[in-house]
Amino acid sequence: MMLIFSKWPAGWSRQSRCTLAIVVGAALLMLLMCCIDVPLAYMPEPIAENAAQFAEGARITVYLTLVSGLAGLVLGVLGALGRLSRIPPLRWLASFYIWVIRGTPLLVQVLFVFLALPELMPWLKMDDFTSACVALAFNAGAYNAESIRAGLLAVPRGQTEAARSLGLSNWYTFRDVVFPQAFKIALPPLVNNFIALLKDSSLAYAIGVVELTNVANRIQSATFQPIPPLVTAAVIYLLLTTVLTQISTAVEHRMDVEGRQQ
């Protein structure tokens, strides 16, 4: 998609073409979520009779990815700031969080949030979808934190000194000078984390979330035909990751005001 919009429309600026690519990509994603059951209905059995289930599973997968991805981005920013904090308890807490999350399997984290967390906190009631969102968000946040921390450390110290010499406070220096540059530097690994999150969301099937993998597994269990449902789920995942990758690439080019990416 970016290949199409890299030269067309000819009279538009590169930023405008990237914005158009983002809009078209978002429209394609919405179209895929709303109408994926239409082509599936013309597929051979057992796909055709379960087209609506595949479509609903794809929608739940996207919702799960978007909610946990946005929450994971916020947790990543907080984790990165904690890791760079001058306050030792905050630095220790952020380091412990990242160490635990990155050192344990995601499946264990999903099961812990769904099964063990209510035992530790009986007042905390979460359904399977919410539990999956929490587990995925905390997992993504740990990896995002390291990417954002690397971006913050990559911003030259002179940028901060120049901002302070102009009379900007610490908050405005961070908000208007340091963080925008750090976010642009960290954007490629953040994009990779988000795409990986879409595929990692398949682990939510372990706690009963009826997402795409769960749908395929249920159909193959009922029909004893593993190849059609699993191949169908794989193709839908491939379509979703392709569209999201194109949107993310367009966002990267949109933020590349220096024109380093061609």
Automatic annotation (TrEMBL):
InterPro entries this protein is in?
AA_ABC_transptr_permease_3TM, ArtM/GltK/GlnP/TcyL/YhdX-like, MetI-like, MetI-like_sf
Protein localization = Cell inner membrane; Cell membrane
Q: What terms describe the molecular function in GO for this protein?
A: transmembrane transporter activity
Membrane topology of this protein: Multi-pass membrane protein
Protein name listed in UniProt: Putative glutamine transport system permease protein GlnP
- UniProt organism field: Lautropia dentalis
Which intervals hold domain ABC transmembrane type-1? Answer: 58-248
Task: Cite the entry's keywords alphabetically.
Answer: Amino-acid transport, Cell membrane, Membrane, Transmembrane, Transmembrane helix, Transport
> Any idea what job this protein has?
Part of the binding-protein-dependent transport system for glutamine; probably responsible for the translocation of the substrate across the membrane.
